[in-house]
């Protein structure tokens, strides 16, 4: 028997693309800015992007199940606006604000999913509609004004520290562990992949596809709620524009992380790397004093590259000849 | 007569698998040349080498005296080779004519000459003597017609060799006859044909010669008139194989499943019962509503009216999950779309329906899954170096075994097999039959839907025959005959 015991570099790179890219980015910026590798700077970047990481974890679930949600940006805006109004106008206590935000997040997620289900649409199409509604509502409620003076206790969630660790980063770490656990260790996680891999086979395998979609929408909604809390709390004020464009950052990050638009596969740790790559790039461009609109151009290019890479990988896989993990067992 | 194609010492390796092991043989011009061998013997791999889909590690391919170390799809086409793969390669959302001329336009690039394309396509179908609307969307055609579109696709160029990988596996009996007629026509025109099939009768009916492969090696070539069925099997399996339907002591028990006046999914007023330890065959032509019936019983499609009783008690089955809980399992006929998760490993596939049982709390017990998968790999002889292999990398027949294992793993008491031996080799067929008998011995009851009359007659205790969505008749073992079944199946 012919066996191939060599370490397969190509395979490794392909499976860990996002982390490799992240390391490359880090090395480049370490040269540009000597302070880049300081602990403070790293924690800072993590802190600023914790809400994106958290929301992206939720969207990953949706994309692994083979769907796309483009409403997260304004879902976060609407969520932040409603909770901020309740706290500032009605004087609702912070802890209740947190709970309402999470419940609202889940409700919005479920609304998206149910609209798609009832109209028999792809979630993508349904969210094209709902995102416009969320945007409109958010602007109507704020009358395009900024809502400031959020309660101190609420702001602490976004601005406080436990030891050297910013609270948002801590929350992101906890949620990351939770999500990795669900996806990689539990059978619910396998059901998510099964639905993304082949819906009809999943249905005939006795998996409750609708129930799973409700579950996935709830998890994603929960994450959006938490993301909204952290973003409003960190900014200390809320506008209807708060989440604008977030959906594309997140979809790009998730794709960069190796989750496919066709669902059924992908590693959740790659998604974190994906978010950080985008964060570091925009950070770096700020350092280089590039106009913010150049950053849009760059993000767009990266997004196309990420989707292109996704399709490229798929084509490669169709032709792929070597895909078996090379283990001792093979020599038998 | 000359040689259309020669292979010299061709080898192809995958990690842990020698898919082709120093294969040398040749194909005579103008022949229908059958290629046979067990699941995973390397037939499809050989085809892919010839079509240029993959590159061999060693060896030469000789076409009309020209030597190649490897081909590309373009080059292979240019040399006059057309391939119809085991899995169709049509674009379902495009019309027949668009599919036929996919990638090669008549007229110039900017203004393709659609009229000419339609005319040519219609000409091809007229020559076949079949009626296919060239404007129809491919997804609306029956599998048999889709296959004719595949064949037409190869005929737009000057084709010398057409390779068909298990063309009869997914089409109806009548369509197979049309296919054979067309193969005959092509042969008369001097086109060489390589025909892969696991069905012995077919090969004896249309082939001039047969080449056998085993474990990636070329075993030999024989003229069809100088071999017997038994010789062929021995060459394929490497030992003598007793090809018969295993007997089992007949002692069916009480009723485990009763279906009363069932309506739904296009089927009408269906009643039958299944007894414990019995194999109930369901016969019928393609389109008779057999799979439709199975899906209603399994909860995958809606029951409009009627009762389903399990062990005498009426139960409501609203989803496949309900069916599995009630002890009913279904093995789908459409492996690629309904059965297998191609992008996932074997063990993942086998365990997916039984995860709650294989978990502690919500956490999957990887060890238990390994055990289960290894057990089924041995039991069904799934040919693979490791159970971590992705299912898409398995040969067609071995994919089928994974799909069977997935449902068996649920420990159901009633199992519906829908075309269980489609694409499975002679040896594995025997194994599946044995397996059915063992299941019966354990007190499990089986419903077997099959288009292979012989197998139905050989394995069933009772057969019901369907026609246009309803039960046309029932036959007891002593009354089994192909004629009777056909009579009922055609609605007489
Ligand atoms: N891409 C791949 N990666 C790894 N192994 C592969 C790959 N493709 C094929 N193989 C292996 O090569 C062997 C030959 O497969 P092949 O598909 O040629 O069999 P076959 O004779 O066509 O079988 P069947 O009758 O079941 O279709 C099998 O063991 C299969 O698992
Ligand atoms: Mg094959």
Description:
The complex is a heterodimer of chains A (332) and B (492). By secondary structure, chain A is mainly α. Chain A has a domain at 38-243: ABC transporter involved in vitamin B12 uptake, BtuC (Orthogonal Bundle). Chain A has 14 helices and two strands; from the N terminus they run H-H-H-H-H-H-H-E-E-H-H-H-H-H-H-H. Chain A has a two-stranded antiparallel ribbon. The longest helix of chain A is centred in the last third of the chain and has 28 residues, at 292-319. Residues 1-6 and 317-332 of chain A have low confidence and may be disordered. With 492 residues, chain B is an alpha/beta fold. Chain B has two domains: 3-237, P-loop containing nucleotide triphosphate hydrolases (Rossmann fold), CATH 3.40.50.300; 255-489, Rossmann fold, CATH 3.40.50.300. Chain B is built from 17 helices and 22 strands. Chain B has helices spanning 43-51, 73-78, 96-100, 114-128, 143-154, 173-188, 200-206, 229-237, 290-297, 320-325, 335-339, 346-351, 366-380, 396-408, 426-441, 453-459, 482-489, and strands at residues 3-14, 17-28, 32-37, 58-63, 66-68, 81-84, 161-165, 192-196, 209-214, 217-223, 255-264, 267-275, 279-283, 305-310, 313-314, 328-331, 359-360, 363-364, 414-418, 445-449, 462-467, 470-476. In chain B, the strands form five sheets. A six-stranded mixed β-sheet of chain B has the order 6-7-8-3-9-10, sandwiched between helices. The longest helix of chain B has 16 residues, at 173-188. The model of chain B has no long low-confidence stretch (mean pLDDT 90). Chains A and B meet through helix 9 and helix 10 of A and helix 10, helix 11 and strand 18 of B. Adenosine-5'-triphosphate (ATP) sits between chains B (14, 17, 19, 37, 39-45, 383-384, 393-398, 425) and A (321, 323-324). Magnesium ion binds at residues 43-44, 86, 165, 395-396 of chain B.
